[in-house]
Amino acid sequence: MRERTFPTGFRHMVSSKPYHLINYEKAYAETGSAPEESSYRDHELRNRVQDKADRMDDRLLSLWEDVTSVNIHPDVSIKTDRSPRGLGELIGELVSNLLTDNTLDSHSDFLSGVIEGLDSGAPHDHVTKSTGMEARTELLERTREKTTEQLDRQVKVTEEWFDGYINKDRNTREAREYIQEVLENNDFCSSKFVVQQIQFELLDGRDNRRQEAWDATSALSETSILEVVERKSLEERAKLRRQIEEDVKNLHSKRRGQSRREVFEYVATQTDEQPIHTNDFVRAGKRLGDRSVVVTILNDLAGKTGRRERGHDKVRSANPLLERVNGDKWQTTAYGDIIADWLFEEGLGLSDTTREEEVAVAKELEDSDANE
């Protein structure tokens, strides 16, 4: 049975108050302000957290007492699932946060104390075996060797990762250039969107572009590239995106100071998904301006013919974003839904539409162009 001794500086009595941060205290410590649902004020939680911080020595002593007490009796075992290195990293990070003087000298003092603490429980007899100095020297030498090995491994891993990153970046650019060349040679759209879709389908997560010897022409075939274009309907979807970009740009224009985008947004973002009556725009207040101006914009977005002024029809009437239903009510078209998703959802464009929906809308746009 091992003798239990207090470490230097820990001979005082331990407070009976809890040491760990609880409830709102932890939230305040992490954010610097009291949570909204808390009845505490900032200064009240600050005082409570500071009180816990001031008793950190007590908390360390409490942990030390628990560990040494459990380790005294042979019938009670103590263990941790952490490896010796993992335990050292945990304690090292803890001490790094506790030290007020985070310098090389303070770190070396801490490590000296760790070695002394380990040596006090080491299974050796300084009289019959190596002296205490020899034992500590041996421990320091072994630590130096392992640290050097670890640093060498980290440097090697970093160098290999960087080389792989450089190779992948270069090979990815070559792959995109090759895909673009194949598309252009076959009279297909070679936009950034189409090239990226083919890259994602044929390469991302499935190749070894990090290797220096990787070759785009070997990894990609013209047949496979064209097959993705056909299977993913990339030509039609690229056309849709070009039209979307044009119409989104036009939506930012104004009619007598009233933004077309605001009128469109008012219809497209209604949470109940019900058609909006013309009178609702008037009740919406000054934000949407004069009724006649709003109605004119609604007609434009719905592709309605009628009295127009030069330069007024900013969004192509052949591809309406809105449609008029039940007399004087308005709702988005399928194409308008896609425009709304592009503008008001995640900002990524077409995030909630399927490939089939995109192709169907693109086909409608193509048919309307043919009829113009």
Q: Could you outline the blueprint of secondary structure elements for this entry?
A:
Elements: H1 24-31, H2 42-54, H3 56-72, H4 84-98, H5 104-120, H6 132-185, H7 192-202, H8 216-219, H9 222-231, H10 234-251, E1 254-255, E2 258-259, H11 260-268, E3 276-277, H12 278-283, H13 291-301, E4 322-325, E5 329-332, H14 334-344, H15 355-371
Antiparallel strand pairs: 1-2, 3-5, 4-5
Distinctive features:
single chain; 372 residues; mainly alpha; 3 domains; three-stranded antiparallel sheet; two-stranded antiparallel sheet; 15 helices; 5 strands
Describe the structure.
The chain starts with 23 loop residues before the first helix and ends with a helix. It is mainly alpha-helical. Helix 1 packs across helix 2, helix 6 (132-185) packs across helix 7 (192-202) and helix 7 (192-202) packs across helix 9. Strand 1 and strand 2 form a beta hairpin. It has a 3-stranded antiparallel beta sheet with strand order 3-5-4. It has helices at 24-31, 42-54, 56-72, 84-98, 104-120, 132-185, 192-202, 216-219, 222-231, 234-251, 260-268, 278-283, 291-301, 334-344, 355-371; strands spanning 254-255, 258-259, 276-277, 322-325, 329-332. The chain folds into 3 domains: 14-97, no CATH class; 143-232, no CATH class; 235-371, no CATH class. It has 15 helices and 5 strands.
